[in-house]
Each structure stands twice: as C-alpha cells, then as structure tokens.
Amino acid sequence: MALRPGVTSPAFAARQAAALDRLSDGRLLLNVVVGGHPAELGADGIFLDHDARYAQAAEFLTIWRDLVAGKTVDFAGTYYRVAHGRLDFPVVQQPHPPLWFGGSSDAGHEVAAEHTSVYLSWGEPPHILKDKLADVQARAAKRGRKLKFGLRIHFIVRETETEAWAAADRLISRVSDEQIENAQKRFKVEMDSVGQARMAALQPGDRNKLEIAPNLWAGIGMVRRGAGTALVGDPKSVAARIREYQEIGIETFIGSGYPHLEEAYRVAELLFPELGIDGRRRKVSDNIVNEFAVGSHSTERRLAAVS
User: Fold this and answer.
1) Where in this chain does the entry annotate a coiled-coil region (predicted)?
2) Would you call 9 helix, strand, or coil by DSSP?
C-alpha cells in the first residue's frame, strides 16, 4: 500500500500501518510515495517544491519509524511537531513493516539511504541503472545500512521473438504522432520528477527505434507516465534480461502488461518455467475444510463441513 508523506500525519499513518500489519498477520508492505506531479499534489493540499517534499518525507519517516518501533517520540522539525507520541498496538513485523521507495533525484537517494528497505527503479538499461543503484547503496553504507533493490517494469512475452515484437507494435499502432508529442510535452511541463525525466530521456524520437537495449522497449513511455519500458521477447530472451538485472543487484521484479490479466497468464505460463518458478496451482492444505474447499478435498468432506 502507498504511504504518502504530507497527505496524512505520521502518527495517524503509524496507527493505520499497525492495524493493517496486525490484521494481515505481518504481510504489510508499504511503498513511500513523495510524488512528482505538482498539480495532483496541490489537489491533496501539498504545495512544496521538489526538494522540500523530500525533506518533509524525511521528517515524516523519522517520526513514523520511531513510533512503529515502539518508541515515545518528541520531535520538532520544519514540517512536523510531535509531543510524547506513542503507538499502543505493536506491529507484527519488527521494527516496522518494510518500506519500499523510488526516487531518482539526489534528494530521493538520501531519503532512500536513510529510511527505506527496498529501493525501486523503473526499467532503465542495465548499464545505466547500475550506476544509480551504486550511488544509493554508497549513501546507505555511509549510514551503516544496506538496501535491497527492485525493478518496476512491463512484460510482453510470447512464444517467439517475432510474435512478441508484433504484440508490442500493436500496442502503439493506433497512437498518433500528435498524441506522442502532446504527452511528452505534458510530462516535461507538468512534472518535476527526475525519474520521469530519466524515462523521457530514453525516448529515441523515432517510433521505429524503440528497442533501447536488448529486449528493452520504450514504446509504453511515449504516452504513459511513470514506468515506461517493457521487456519484450520470447521466454528465453526475457529470462536472460532478468538475470542481467539480477547481476547488478535487482532482487524483486514488479511487473505488469497490457491487457493486465492476459499478460499475467502469459508471463506465468511462458516465462515462469524459464525462471524456475513453479506456476502450477498449489495443493490446498488438508486442514482447510469449508464450503469453498478445493483440490484435495472430496465432495463428501465439503458436504460434511457445511452440514
């Protein structure tokens, strides 16, 4: 779930996080979202400039982390003041649920190094992304910390390379040059996100030259803000690219595709076996017996459970 500094108070957010972590029995993950679209932020009542938002986020997370860790908090900063704050209901995950975060600016790297568990990036070519990850890790090391890394990217996987690239072409076949131009101008004018600027910089300016690294396609970023690249290819090729990202430190992949459901099935059926992931339905535990029981449960056991 998103954790948005500035939209709510750190103390209230800490109580929400504790409740969700307890209800989910320690399965809560939080993605810290500072934001990069001033107009949208203004609609939420946030009117700080880029670096000030990250300074506010740093104060927010300082308070939030101490509260969730069970400390009594007295804090006086530029953006927040807390007197004798505490959280009465401890979280399951200690010292707090994992904080995920993506920010490509220097200010973002500082927040990541100081406060978060997993640093996320959009899909840039590995040789470019490697330098960014190294910078974040070096900043964390100065604080005696070590971060994990994740990648947010789209997938277009088909049985053959030809089929995959044809599917990519179809996704943008009805997008006009005027729409692309308008979208790119809007991203530059409306957003102050360094990550978005890095995505825009990957655009080659020619819709016929969108493969910006082996199997890495920038077509989505022509009109979609945020994660603008996709891994395109057959299962072996995409698996090879994933391993290249693993080699530079990426441990977690957050994927999507268009249409979402159909591409999820293709990734599970075609890509998972190449990655050594067993995508078959797991057997339901024998100690689960109710009217919705499936798998190993017989009709007689289901009927007995509801009778």
Assistant:
1) none
2) coil
Pairing of strands 230-233, 148-157: parallel
Q: What is the DSSP letter of 8?
A: B
Cβ-contact 111, 58 below 8 angstroms: yes
How far apart CA 119 and CA 288 sit, in angstroms, is: 37
Average pLDDT, the chain: 91
Q: Which residue from 232, 193, 234 is spatially nearest to 213, judged by alpha carbons?
A: 232
Q: How far apart are CA 217 and CA 92, in angstroms?
A: 40
Helix H segments across the chain? 10-23, 38-43, 50-68, 106-115, 126-142, 161-171, 177-190, 194-201, 235-247, 260-266, 272-274, 299-306
Residue 118 pairs in a beta bridge with 100, 148
d(CA 301, CA 5): 50
Contact between 21 and 92 under an 8 Å Cβ cutoff? The reply is yes
Cα distance between residue 226 and residue 141, in whole Å: 28
Helix-strand-coil percent breakdown of the chain, rounded to 5? 45, 15, 40
* AA letter at 238: V
Q: How confident is the model at residue 239 (pLDDT cuts 50, 70, 90)?
A: very high
CA-to-CA distance for 116 and 91, rounded, in angstroms? Answer: 17
Q: Could you report the per-residue pLDDT of 84-116, keeping only the tens digit for each?
A: 999 999 999 999 999 999 999 999 999 999 999
Cα–Cα distance for residue pair 273/277, rounded to 1 Å = 6
